[in-house]
Amino acid sequence: MSYIVALSGGIASGKTTIANLFAQLGVPIIDADVIARQVVAIGTSALTQIVKHFSQEILLANGELDRSQLREIIFNNDHERLWLNNLLHPIIAQETQKQFAEQTAPYVIWVVPLLIENNLQHLADRILLIDTPEELQLERLINRDGISESLANRMIRTQVSLTDRLAFADDIIVNDGNLAALTVQIDHLHKQYLHNSKVKNSYE
């Protein structure tokens, strides 16, 4: 199996931007958010259970999950957020393991926002965490999702603090909006992870 690098960071910290830069270098990306959308697609068991729990009102007119409505519910109700996490996390974990097993590249980037919150560190060979100024994180979240500052703040507060998150880091990538500096950091890490993969494989 490929060497697994878990890429994590707070919401709107730039995980997609960084993953895309790794992808441009030919690195496979396994994205927990993409998997999370796949497991609640129309016709899935998870979507059926979500509708049973929240009612048909949680669906859009085309039958898809109304993500914006669901987000409003779970970020204003800890009990509902816990219920949803307990439903989806085992399903997401199963699909993630399946995708890991299919990889043949030297290493993969596993984008997983709630790595620390869900205690998933043991599944990765190395942990790469994003260091983003909170004011920039807040601004990105408001602009990206078109939400209020109060909701954006609540979403950020539900996650582990940057200080606590960085304590788990093997590597830290600074994302302060400077794309050129970001690219340099990623090129360096790419070479490091290719080397790490060779070392791991030599012991297996």
Automatic annotation (TrEMBL):
GO MF terms held by the record: ATP binding; dephospho-CoA kinase activity
* Residues the entry annotates as binding ATP: 12-17
Taking the record's annotation, the residue ranges forming a coiled coil are none
Keywords, sorted A to Z: ATP-binding, Coenzyme A biosynthesis, Cytoplasm, Kinase, Nucleotide-binding, Transferase
The broad enzyme category this protein falls into is transferase
Q: Name one GO biological process term.
A: coenzyme A biosynthetic process
What cellular-component terms does GO give this entry? Answer: cytoplasm
Q: Where in the cell is it found?
A: Cytoplasm
HAMAP family of this UniProt entry? Dephospho_CoA_kinase
What biological function has been recorded for the protein in this entry? Catalyzes the phosphorylation of the 3'-hydroxyl group of dephosphocoenzyme A to form coenzyme A.
UniProt-recorded name of the protein: Dephospho-CoA kinase
